[in-house]
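Hi L.,

As promised, Argininosuccinate lyase:
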Amino acid sequence: MKLWQKEGVTTADQIERFTVGRDREMDLYLAPFDVLGNLAHAQMLETINLLTSEELSQLTVELKKIYQQIEDGQFVIEEGVEDVHSQVELMLTRALGDTGKKIHSGRSRNDQVLVDMKLFTRDRLWQVAESVQRVFDRLVSRSEQHKDDLLPGYTHLQIAMPSSFGLWFGAYAEALADDMLTLQTAYRLANRNPLGSGAGYGSSFPLNRSLTTELLGFEGMHVNVVYAQMSRGKTEQTALTALAAVAATISRMAMDICLYNSQNFGFLTLPDALTTGSSIMPHKKNPDVAELLRAKTNRMKALPMEVTLVMSNLPSGYHRDMQLLKEILMPAFDEILDCLDITDFMLEHIQVKPNLLNDPKYDLLFSVERVNELVLQGVPFREAYRIVGKEIADHTYHPPRVLHHTHEGSIGNLGTDLIQQTMEKALAGFGADKAQSAIKELLA
């Protein structure tokens, strides 16, 4: 029987197929986290005398066996079993009889799903943070490596002022440092304990919610039991907003790479191993990796809106609509992690072309340098601007090609150390060590 099913009552097969949908598939993501939630809940039940110490010991042994099956890839949700929560409880009941049935005391499937989703989201957000840091480190390394290789800077897709590959790589590094703050916010919202909220209205059992909060390594709890249920949707939307921020940074960089790799720009070269050819044009070396990154990450920008639409106009309390959030959230983590991995690989192998600005077609890039040269000689800026404009019009313009950019964040002073400090501070704000230590202790 299902966790909610009553004696003698059955649901039509067509209705069951429609209501379950892809939930069993999505629930495989939750399996290890469901076991963790059960381990903490069981310990708490023993402290309020709803389990004996012997029953707790038996449940703990069996739950750790199930966790190992999951780790070994041997865990399945059996045919006819509705979800991961039912499967775990079924396995405990087969092994321990009535003791296995006691694990659900003081809990609703609502808060069981919630705690699983919180633990899953917290775990995956930290994985994304680690992957973002790897790409960040790669960008910082390439920025320092190419700080002296100049690059045309553009506004309105017209040449504007001198830039450098040091600035270009470093710009995306700093963008990821900002994105890490968004990930941190999402992580901290996911890092709050809903367990004990039941169906959204608490329990008459004297549950120790502070204990399960500590056992699962949460930063704190969702205190109000109604709001704990209302955090469903908000947690997913915030997480996806953070992923969309990372995706936006990657998609913009991918677009730059597509442009800079083209013959019309010719600033970067992708090695043969990172390109594909044409079935008809033998000269083609297409930047398919960057193009697919652009498309995949652009799609991810829409995901927060999908959650918004699912949750639109829902009143407080639980509603089955929320089941669909799993299908939006869970695959998104796989997608962004894959995109970050291939981004790091591409950045490692991308080749920079030196001496780009030696070409006379980039003379106009140095017009501001010429204006500033006159200003330093005592000419008022507006007059200097007019003089250089006339030089360009009269073809008497001869710009200086030596740059003197010394302020923080400029060509001559990238400020890499300051950007790294921003990233380190953002990473420290996750407080991930506490969560990881708690989980290790729970499984010990």
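The chain has three domains: 13-104, 109-205+223-358+412-443, 360-394.

Thanks again for sending the construct details.

K.
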